[in-house]
Amino acid sequence: MNIAPSLITELKENEIFVFGSNEAGIHGAGAAKQALKWGAIYGQGFGLFGQTFAIPTKNKNLNTLSIGKIGVYVERFIEYTIRSEERIFLVTEIGCGLAYYKPKDIAPLFWGLNNAENIYLPKSFLEVLNGI
What we know:
Low-confidence stretches: none
Structural class: alpha/beta
Helix content: 25-40%
CATH class: Alpha Beta
Shape: globular
CATH architecture: 3-Layer(aba) Sandwich
Distance between the termini: 14 Å
Radius of gyration: 13 Å
Mean pLDDT: 96
Largest sheet: 5 strands, mixed
CATH superfamily: Leucine Aminopeptidase, subunit E, domain 1
Order of helices and strands: EHEEHEHEH
């Protein structure tokens, strides 16, 4: 079980900062704003950019996406991580800030990844996934 740091202030060369974004790629607050220093691109709301990976939790109008829609983006993220085993993905509490979801809502989207070698999940997600 790999636990992502609760506060990420620097990245090693092979580490990727995974953050909640919006479909418009407006990285104006929270982890999304922090991601700009590691290569997130303004206007790009999903995918790998520099040492970041954006997962939308809000739409282009900045309205919160449904859990189902976020789940589609998480599935695409997981597909990418399988092809990128050399990288370490440090997942933040996506959807639990400005999108107003709770870890109990978002963590199940990462079901089965609590033992993945290259994915580090927030402690709060792991507690949900492990039934703590």
